Write the structure tokens for this entry.
Amino acid sequence: MSSKNDSRPHFEETIVNHSNADITLPAWFVPAAVVCGLMFVVSPVLIANTPYEATMGLVQKIFYYHLPSAFMFLLGGIVCGIASARYLATRNPHHDRVAWAAAELIVLFGVLTLVTGPLWARKSWGVWWTWDVRLTSSLVSWLLAVSYLLVRRYGGPGSDRLAAALALFGMANVPFIYISVNFWRTIHPLTTVVPTLPSSFGVPTWFCITAFLLLFVLLLRMRVRLEAQRARLDAMYLSLDE
């Protein structure tokens, strides 16, 4: 049941714009979930059999989960921003639900990124954290996603539009995070490193990126479905009061 301060779509919007496609899971969902689960079972074995990097040794293997988490973190920012822009333009509750779900995934994958990064950095570069451009801008994006969720939960009427504005700002920060290492001195490698990895490192990297991407899609779809079901339940509850 929705609280009074919750900014879920209004009853009339839910009845008019509600899509059954949001409620029903697509046919590909279960096979994709099985494949995703198998990929995460295989990934530790694949990573364990990957050669050690010459200078960093064993600790470099954190890279195979850190990089995919960071990619999904940035992808979440793009999805949330685009969905928010479409919601502001159309007021379609579906886009609002997608933006909300993506914001939660930004927080989730952002935590993974911001935890695995310092673990790797401490062993590789001797520091847990440094306020370089990429790290600072990544933290800002994560805080924006947290702010989005807080605004949606406690902001009251109109908070959907305010949160959408935050999402647009967060999306604008995504390309800045990605290319910042090419223009400012930082402990992170350049963006040209990943495409040029030798196959012994590239194969497990892209395997893990694919697994995380599939997980992102599945979680996004499930979360949108949950919000659609919640909106339908709210609509049914409100109809009892009429």
The chain has eight helices and no strands. The helical segments are 11-17, 20-23, 29-48, 63-90, 93-125, 133-154, 159-179, 199-240.
